[in-house]
Design brief:
CATH superfamily of the largest domain: Metal-dependent hydrolases
Radius of gyration: 24 Å
Shape: globular
Number of helices: 20
Helix content: 40-55%
Number of domains: 2
CATH class of the largest domain: Alpha Beta
CATH topology of the largest domain: TIM Barrel
Distance between the termini: 58 Å
Structural class: alpha/beta
Strand content: 5-15%
Oligomer: single chain
Strand order of the largest sheet: 6-7-10-11
CATH architecture of the largest domain: Alpha-Beta Barrel
Length: 496
Amino acid sequence: MESSGHTGVARAKGTTPKWCTTSAVTQIEMHPDRLFPADPGVRGLARSIHSVVRDVPIISPHGHLDPALLVENTSFTDPSSLFVTPDHYVTRMLHALGVDLARISPQRGHDDGGAPSPREVWRLFCEHWASFRGTPSRYWMESELIDVFGVSVQPGPETADALYDELVAKLASPEFRPRALFKRFRIEVIATTDDPCSELAAHRSLAADTTWTGRVVPTFRPDNYLDPAADDWQRRVALLGTAADADTGDYDGYIDALERRRAFFAQHGATSTDHGPADAESEPLSSAEARRIYAAALRTSATLSECTAFRRHMLGEMARMACDDGMVMQLHSGVLRNHHAPTYAAYGADRGHDIPVAAEFTRALQPLLCRYGTHPRFRLVIFTVDETTWSRELAPLAGFYPSVFVGAPWWFLDTPGAMLRFREAVTDTAGFHKTSGFVDDTRAFCSIPARHDMARRVDCGYLAGLVAAHRLSEDEAFETAHALAYRLPRDVFRLT
């Protein structure tokens, strides 16, 4: 046998490697030991640990599923609207490869005003399939195609139309409707992300539907109401007053309106709030100064520095309210949103051009944590896209404050490599039980089980390494794997 140059791979002399063949169709497959350690002994341990958590129900405490999908329960129309256009991981990569967003965006079409057809979008995606090699998007997509849809052929230019037709036919079947998939994915509970003024109509419909047995809870996301520099802030504050039946013409009425809307969300199942400010600064203002800046902001005469100070003050106010109502506070900061102004002007937010920046939490959160960090009802889950803060800041904060938990690798860091680095960076200082459990943070519904399984496999591999090094017993590894997959996200986010 002649070596191919790759460890553990050999071929007979004179044979042609598969990558040199002219065949346009390649079978798609996923190895059962994917993401497990390469060492055979440790891999076997990882496989055993994973068998305990592989089918554990999914707790999804932070996501972006549209609950109306489950209310209407109509068939997904095409693979593009399911796999491509709602997933900014995918659209970002396509745009980076030179694909104009107008060719893959249902919101804005070609220069003549026509939207691209779903088949066109799918063809573009398939044409660029090879460029997703090594990315988590490729991993998730393969898992979806194989495990959810039973597809056996890899996407590519030559297979695009046949795959499209196969997927459209399957999507028309009842077993691929949203409610059937929700049950098939073993989702026990999923949290959506919702505007404070939302009347939560879809959530209320699901709660009133006696044929629905799943659990979908809202999450209070007030960013655009807390920052006077945000687009349309004055109009939003007026809408907040209407929704809360409160007078937001002054600061006290504004605070009352926020508290009322939080209570409304809690009445409809919400257990957490979500905050994505530019930074984690939390310096409080005096009551007089907060009132003064609020009044100036309503008149559009507040300076940018005043708006920033008010936004930072309001992060502390959200913590105060969390102590009162027990809602878990999620903090996702350190991202420069909408980096490319022309794209934002043409297509709006969440189009893939949010870019991570260096983050700081220790000094930024000190004012907030000095006031509320040891309050028995306060709970703060901190996420970052700056992994240098894991061991330097977040693990030490969680290692002291009872209220602080380190959020799972998020967004740019929900990759196998970063997940492993997360465990290595955080566990020494904070252990496993001061982390949040996995969050999928996705708009791509069918990727939810793939994302959770990826996290479980990485965690099982890490635990197997501890067992092999005689730092954990096998029983402890099994118990910890179950906690990471199920108990921690349920308990940390108060979804019990």
